Amino acid sequence: MKNILVTGGTGYIGSHTVLELLENDYNVIIVDNFSNSHPKVLDALETIANKKIKLFRTDIRNKEKLEQIFKEEAIDAVIHFAGYKAVGESVFQPLKYYNNNLTGTITLLEVMEKYSVRKLVFSSSATVYGTPEKMPLIEGEPTGATNPYTRTKLMIENILEDLSVAKDTWRLLSLRYFNPLGAHNSGDIGENPNGIPNNLAPYITQVAIGKLDKLHVFGNDYPTEDGTCIRDYVHVEDLAKGHVDALQYLETSKKGFDIFNLGSGKGYSVFEIISSFEEVIEEKIPYEITGRRAGDLPVTYADTTKAQNDLNWKAQKNIQEMCRDSWNWQKKHPNGFED
Length: 339
Ligand code: NAD
Ligand code: UD1
What we know:
Layout: E1 3-7, H1 12-23, E2 27-32, H2 40-49, E3 54-57, H3 63-72, E4 77-80, H4 87-92, H5 94-114, E5 119-125, H6 148-166, E6 171-177, E7 179-181, H7 200-208, E8 215-218, E9 230-231, E10 233-235, H8 236-252, E11 257-262, E12 268-269, H9 270-281, E13 287-290, H10 305-311, H11 319-332
Parallel strand pairs: 1-2, 1-4, 2-3, 4-5, 5-6, 6-11, 7-10, 8-13
Antiparallel strand pairs: 9-12
Bound molecules: nicotinamide-adenine-dinucleotide and uridine-diphosphate-N-acetylglucosamine.
């Protein structure tokens, strides 16, 4: 298996995975419409990897174009990142999410079927566990969606499972990511959110760089030791490695469809994340406690036994390394790919 099509390969997780694939001697073909990424990501990737990378600027819902790519390239497997990911936005614009995430995936699967490419790794999310009753979260436990974004992830997992039942030559994997953090060790690619960040880490680094005044901590009255929410943060480079391990697993797997958690298995509170950033930045992060954010769970973290046993994958980087690398990227590129 040599030629890997990466949809959404210039996005945050996709770009780090592209580098990991290249390092492991895969050929990469990126498809991205730049709806949530910058065209300059390609330059950064080529500089870091020191090689040319093939990229098709197109929407994966453009079936004609996608077919052309499958006709021209001898694709062996697909890693499918392309989709919209903002939970809050999905509540207000559900059709945007159903259209892009579902139509995009169905179009991709139809083209894969037509060209007999039946290996796929899909980006799912820890949010599919809904409102769980116990931790850590284990694959196979009940799922639930509290917003359209998560519903698209669950629907896609169902579609993948149905496909594997319909034809036993499909090899389909769903990876449920916990909270990605960090950036490539070069500091030249990283998370580049549009507008004001929704997520904790980019918000903190933008406060530190002076783009935002202060962090709003969403609640300190949760039933946790310091009262703030606990999440499972995982370095984006570890996540990227998980995709290479997933591809290797698909080569020999007998299962048509399978699901894996990718997380560190450890939980950190909002205050602990602030402290870790303060250590690497060597400055205090100004913050204010505000009310809880609707829909936030007090505690989530993964059981990663299955990924360890079957994929031979385990997160290696600790929280200090995650914060250091996020900060390094932010400091080196205060305006993201505009710098
Ligand atoms: P991202 O927005 O940085 O990357 C997604 C990429 O897909 C972008 O480059 C965007 O331009 C592209 N894209 C979107 N729709 C497209 C379309 N129709 N055709 C072609 N390209 C398209 O997101 P990310 O953080 O890298 O996440 C990647 C995947 O992982 C997403 O599916 C997301 O839902 C999932 N995920 C992300 C997180 C997270 O916290 N980042 C957590 C869990 C799951
Ligand atoms: C969010 C998304 C989830 C996505 C995940 C990945 C929601 C409801 N969920 O989850 O789909 O997979 O990001 O990164 O949006 N916090 C603050 N102040 C901030 C931002 C966040 O206090 O400005 C707190 C939050 O309350 C939470 C923690 O920090 O307790 C982490 O938040 P965030 O980075 O948004 O991640 P999740 O809420 O886990």
